[in-house]
Amino acid sequence: MKALLCLSAAAAGLPLLGQAWYPKNNFVIGGGLARPRGDIAAGMGDTGALSIGYGYRFLPNLQADVGLDTAFHAAGVKDYLYTGFGYQRIRDYEFFIPFGGRVILPVRRFWISGGAGGAYLHYSERIHQPSSYYRIDCPVCTSRSGWGYYALASVGGSIDRGGHFRLSVTAKMYRAHTDGEPIQDIPPVETKDKWLFLGPELGISF
């Protein structure tokens, strides 16, 4: 966290490195690894993750961000519920909604960035739906949620001459308190949760 703040402060104090034009609308999609830590480390394990996000770059070096990160089956829930459509599987999903900003330091076609902000976390068990036209209730599915913050660091570069497509590698850290119902081995008490997301991202800017 201290390193990210130092990066942001240093980038903000440097002069702009020659960008007459810069993309204001920035979309990203990525994947990678989600690693739980803190009080939930014993009840959840490393798993795959998917991320989408949008950033509005209102100044060459400043961008406002919002996104959605999803971790899949970190708690290892593998239950089934008998319904009118037979047995339907139940799995757990972890959702993260970050909202904040970042400082961007561009260097020709490359850049580094660091950012931070608030975050909402929601873990839930979900039943497989047999059809998009009919939804099955899941009375045994549980959920828990809470608020916290995140910090990130990213490095990347443009893959086209116009700067509309880019590849980057991003590390993002979440810290939050969650509370609610039990999910697998996570007890029904407030926990101090930590997560690390790491992986590549593909961006489209205009």
Keywords:
206 residues, 1 helix, Porin, mainly beta
Task: Tell me the layout of helices and strands.
Elements: H1 2-13, E1 25-38, E2 47-59, E3 62-72, E4 79-83, E5 86-107, E6 110-127, E7 143-158, E8 165-180, E9 191-205
Antiparallel strand pairs: 1-2, 1-9, 2-3, 3-5, 4-5, 5-6, 6-7, 7-8, 8-9
**Looking at CATH, which topology would you report?**
Porin
What's the CATH architecture name? Beta Barrel
SS content category? mainly beta
Mean pLDDT value: 91
The total count of strands amounts to: 9
Order of helices and strands: HEEEEEEEEE
CATH class call: Mainly Beta
Structure described in brief:
With 206 residues, the chain is mainly beta.
What can you see in these coordinates?
The chain is mainly β. It has a single domain, classed as Porin (Beta Barrel), CATH 2.40.160. It is built from one helix and nine strands, in the order H-E-E-E-E-E-E-E-E-E. It has an eight-stranded antiparallel beta barrel. A hairpin with a 2-residue loop joins strand 2 and strand 3. 27% of the residues are buried. About 6% of the residues have low confidence.
